UniProtKB/TrEMBL annotation:
GO molecular function, one term: L-threonine 3-dehydrogenase activity
PANTHER family given in the database record: L-THREONINE 3-DEHYDROGENASE (PTHR42687), L-THREONINE 3-DEHYDROGENASE, MITOCHONDRIAL (PTHR42687:SF1)
InterPro entries, alphabetized: Epimerase_deHydtase, NAD(P)_epim/dehydratase
NAD-dependent epimerase/dehydratase domain boundaries: 6-244
Protein name (record): NAD-dependent epimerase/dehydratase family protein
Source species: Pinibacter aurantiacus
GO annotation, biological process: L-threonine catabolic process
């Protein structure tokens, strides 16, 4: 078992909920410290080491890293695209200052590695819709996307200037059955499964034909660990890597759900999230991730739909 100590910031989020157990399998429970600004509750029951603190408080971060001899940080705390549009300056402050704090601590305390998530939100209207390339163009339309493209430059800067081994992935919409996403444009693709099982119907906040890049959580967790466990010489890109999972429209996802729930119906009432979705690519080119560290997705829409419905069925008897 690997022995380094890891701090996961934002452990109660959609990705953190699944990444903490996966890291504990690799590194041992005692070596992975989960943290969040929220205290654990019945909603966020967590086993193993946990600290509650605000990543915007740099002094607390420094103290925790020193006290626990942390060697790696996964910074997962962020405000997502849709909520970020409601609170633009708050989104900018949280998404940027958290990253700067972590990069500074990584530099000063000589951490071995940092992980920071970017997003397909770095792309915009001038980016190709199909198989959107690794190198842009980038013209984000949301504060979240602006913070992600700026953050990518900060990561590269700390790598080039100070040698901080920071690695990043541009996640598509993540789909999981353990935790709900919060405040994103791709959230419908999780909610639809819950509503299909609870009510056999769903009203989607995007149009029927809005194709978006998505990924089933087991693929996302594996991608993250594969990137972080790869030897440093393989990581040629210190901004962030495109990774592709599966792309589909709400109508296509509804059709896949109907394989198991034939009476399921969907209606469409697009809201302000539609214009965000319209600015993002339909699908992603991830040849750089494949070439550099061997990334390949395993889940398509059918296997993902089957597993999501199987796992969630017990919650909606
Ligand atoms: C969002 O919808 O904001 C996120 C993302 C694609 O980064 N899921």
């Amino acid at each position: 078992m690997k022995q380094e100590k890891i701090l996961v910031i934002g452990a109660f989020g959609q990705l953190g909920t699944e990444l903490v157990p996966a890291l504990r399998t690799l590194y041992g429970e005692a070596n992975v410290i989960a943290s969040d600004v929220r205290e654990p509750s019945s909603m966020n029951a967590i086993q193993g080491p946990f600290v509650s603190f605000d990543v915007l408080d740099k002094k607390s971060l420094e103290t925790i890293v020193r006290r626990h001899h942390i060697a790696q940080i996964y910074l997962l705390a962020a405000m997502l695209s849709a909520t970020g549009e409601q609170f633009p300056t708050k989104a900018w402050d949280l998404n940027m200052q958290s990253l700067i704090n972590v990069l500074e601590v990584a530099k000063d305390q000589h951490l071995n590695r940092v992980f920071w998530p970017s997003s397909i939100a770095v792309f915009g209207k001038s980016s190709p819709k199909k198989d959107c390339p690794q190198d842009g163009p980038f013209d984000p339309t949301t504060v979240y996307g602006i913070s992600k493209i700026a953050g990518e430059h900060w990561c590269n800067y700390y790598y080039e200037k100070y040698g901080v081994d920071v690695r990043s992935i541009r996640y598509p919409g993540l789909i999981s059955y353990t935790a709900m996403p919060g405040g994103g444009t791709t959230d419908y693709a999780v909610d639809i499964f819950h509503q299909a099982l609870a009510k056999n119907e769903y009203t989607c906040f995007l149009r029927h034909d809005s194709a978006l890049p998505m990924m089933y959580m087991p693929d996302a967790v594996r991608a993250t660990l594969e990137l972080m466990e790869a030897p440093a010489y393989l990581i040629k890109n210190r901004h962030s890597y495109n990774i592709a999972g599966v792309s589909f429209t709400p109508a296509e996802l509804a059709e896949a759900i109907r394989t198991y729930l034939p009476d399921f119906t969907i209606s469409y009432r697009p809201d302000s999230r539609q214009s965000i979705a319209d600015s993002w690519p339909d699908s992603i080119d991830d040849t750089a991730a494949f070439r550099d560290w061997g990334w390949e997705a395993r889940y398509g829409i059918s296997a993902m739909t089957r597993e999501m419905l199987q796992h969630l069925a017990a919650r909606y008897p």
